[in-house]
Every structure is written in C-alpha cells, then in structure tokens.
Amino acid sequence: MNARNQASSAAGDTKTWRGTAAVWDCNSERSLCFSRRELEWPMECTIRPALEDDAAHISAVIVRALRETNAKDYPNEVIERIVRGFSPDAVRQLIGQRTVFVATIRSRIVGTASLDGSVVRTVFVAPHVQARGIGKLLMAEIERTARERNIPSLTLSSSITAETFYAGLGFRAARDSYHGDERTIVMERLLDGSS
Fold this sequence. Notes:
Strand content: 25-35%
Structural class: alpha+beta
CATH superfamily: Gcn5-related N-acetyltransferase (GNAT)
Order of helices and strands: EEEHHHEEEHEHEE
CATH architecture: 3-Layer(aba) Sandwich
CATH class: Alpha Beta
Radius of gyration: 16 Å
Number of helices: 5
Strand order of the largest sheet: 1-2-3-4-5-6-7-9-8
C-alpha cells in the first residue's frame, strides 16, 4: 500500500491502515469478493487477533492462495496435500495453539499470519489483494508481538513463492528443507532492539 497511515482503534487490539492503489477484479468466491465500489481507495486494512469464528474464512484465504499463487511453484499433489492441513477445523485448532492475526478489509478476512513461539507460520494473503502491502502489515504485527515478548529473532519456513517477499523484510535464507516434493526455505531474522 502506498501512503498508508496507521490509526489504533478504541479497543487497542486492532490497527487500521489507509492506502492508495488501483482498482482490481476479484474472483467469484463470495467470502473474498468485493464490488468495484468496495475496492476503491482509500481502503482500510485492519489487523486484529483471529477469533474461532474466523476459522472458515481464514481457511478459504489459505486454500485460495495455495491454489492460485503457490501452485505456480509447486506440483498439484503438493498443493492439495497442504490444503488438507488447513480445513476450517484445523485452522480453529491453530487459533487455540498460536497467536493468529487476520487482515480485514470492510470486515472481510483477506489475510492471516501467526506466531508460534519465535516461529512465524501460516502467512497468506488472498490473491486478489496481494502485492498491496497487506502481507507487510501482517508481518509488522508479528514483529511487534515478538518484540513485546522479548523474542530476539524470528524463524520461518518460506515457500519458494514467498522467499523474495521475506528477503525484502530482512529475512536471510539459512537452509533448504524438503517434505517429499515440497521444498521450503528456512529463513531467519534478528530483531534489533527487542525490549
């Protein structure tokens, strides 16, 4: 997002950003669709903690990102194996085990990221709003949370698809990891000035 301004909500648990960008078309999945009018900027993106009731929408975002974005770098068998691990019930369990955040636009979930100790997990943005700064906003919230917890460094397993994104945020590749045909890149980043 360009020219984003952050504003905190009264509750203190959500953060809202405004930005400018071009209007884009969405796909037909109802939970992720926006009319052209809804997509006009300035648009607000809110980052907030995930709720159990968000599980089905988070699952839909993850599945769509895997099938539309990550599928460019992985065979269909790998994508479908990963998809099975992100059913609404599986996501509901993760919400109970990790610190999970969602990004919303007009109250619709368009992205997610989670922190499991010092490990960043499950960072996905709906394809129709990718490359507009939402992933960076989610990662900023992950980093803020890690600093509050005095976590000195973050680790993640990046898909081939997201490696450049994480490198742009200061993560460095440590090694490759393989799960069958699925190659991921273990990446690390020191957090300067963790309090």
